[in-house]
Amino acid sequence: MKNKGSKFPSRGGVPRSGGVVRLGGEFSMKKLPLGIQSFKDIKNGGYVYADKTQFVYNLLNQAKYYFLSRPRRFGKSLLLDTIAEAFSGDKALFEGLYIYDTDFGFEKHPILRLDMSNISNETPKAFKDSLSGELLKRIRSEGLDIDILCDHEPSGVRGGCGNISIGGQDRRNA
């Protein structure tokens, strides 16, 4: 179906181009999301969004491991935020995008965000302690029932290491 006087085919009133919207009979350009790395802010703020959710769907369903090695300013943070939103359980946020009409379940899962710029890396031991401590803090701040197996107690974190279990179920050999 085509909008009258438009070269952009629509899908339920949403232009496929993603960048042109009809406002009271006239077409205008959507705003560019310069510097915005939040999928939710882009979708709810009326910004242009190139639908990459087919890649997200394939990433989540087809392979076991991925290494994201894109250059700086190439959308890694937005991609990871899009994945996090998919695991937040908010299916309505993806309406009109590829993944919305797939068999992806949109079940809510815990999401841990780590800012690696806060992780000490002066020595391998400092890195291991800092990363272990940050993980334990994030796990606790989310209220997750997870114990982590450590060969030592990370600096600045008390009573954190034990067996790996999620919800009381042993995961050491999982």
Polypeptide structure, described:
- By secondary structure, the protein is α+β, with helices and mostly antiparallel strands.
- It folds into 3 domains: 1-30, no CATH class; 38-101, no CATH class; 121-170, no CATH class.
- The protein contains 4 helices and 7 strands; from the N terminus they run ββββααααβββ.
- The strands form 3 sheets. The chain has a 3-stranded antiparallel sheet with strand order 5-6-7.
- Strand 6 and strand 7 (169-170) form a beta hairpin.
- The relative contact order is 0.08.
Descriptive key words:
174 residues; three-stranded antiparallel β-sheet; two-stranded antiparallel ribbon; 10% strand; globular
Fraction of residues in H or I helices: 25-40%
Biggest sheet statistics? 3 strands, antiparallel
Tell me the strand order in the biggest sheet. Answer: 5-6-7
Shape designation: globular
Q: Distance N terminus to C terminus?
A: 50 Å
The value of Rg in angstroms is: 21 Å
The computed structural class is alpha+beta
Low-confidence stretches: 1-17, 162-166, 168-174
Strand content: 5-15%
Number of strands: 7
Tally the structural domains.
3
Number of helices: 4
- What is the average per-residue confidence, as pLDDT, rounded to a whole number? 77
Oligomer: single chain
Order of helices and strands, N to C?
Answer: EEEEHHHHEEE
